[in-house]
Amino acid sequence: MSKKKLVVAISSRALFDLDESHAIFETQGKEAFCRYQIEHEDELLTPGYGFTLVKKFLALNDLNPEDPLVEIILLSQNSADTGLRIFNSIAHHQLNIIRAAFTSGVSPYSYIPAFGAHLFLSTNADDVAKALQAGFAAATILCGPQAASHSDQLRIAFDGDSVLFSDDSEKIYQQRGLEAFTENERNEAKKPLPGGPFKDFLSALHHIQTQSGSKISPIRTALVTARAAPAHERVVRTLRAWGIRIDEALFLGGMPKGEFLKAFGADIFFDDQQGHCESAAQHVAAAHVPHGITNLKNL
Does this model's pTM top 0.70? Predict the structure, then answer.
């Protein structure tokens, strides 16, 4: 088993469409929910927002079946009893997922470090916020793909500040405006930015990319940021200092990101601003990272 294996944890509601049973939980309570799941455990669940992404992650293992590059872990607030329906659906869809934590209504985020997960995807914003506060990459999936991906490559796009990088510079922008932000980034151009919550996840993706040698990499990454010149230089130097390659960098100077993400063919886009996620979600799957000063302001 590879020591550098990428581990992605996903909630059952992100993997499958559990809206119907979740509505029963919300309106009728836990007992009615459990009864419903047991009564319907032989009925297959339809794919959720994260399903296509999980299939693409697992497809990376076809490149090296003896030493898998990726493992998907299921983290679910279901009980083991009600979780049978979920595992029946996993088996039907031929998803190679063998490890899971069922927590019976308690947030499962505390199992992220035990499983060694680099990323946690959920539809539960509270679980995601707890995971981020504990220092793990986590995001709330807001939508699924609008159309089938045009590429076999796994394509992942990231915002910069508060996602790949810390929110140190974003704080200056929010508190003192664009001019002060630009001046600070020009003055600090040669000083690498501190890492944000998704730095280690990007590093794990980069490691897989380096395994492909001269062949076309199975993963392509993109930085899609509102930054513009001259604030681009610090970003470039930061990634260089980290020893991490990013395949494409789009410095958009505040332009809407959706059309660019569509052109890149992103399978998922991570951004800390809800508005950017909602705009992107018209074109690609988007996931909100509730981290940094922008999200503190919105509380």
Answer: yes
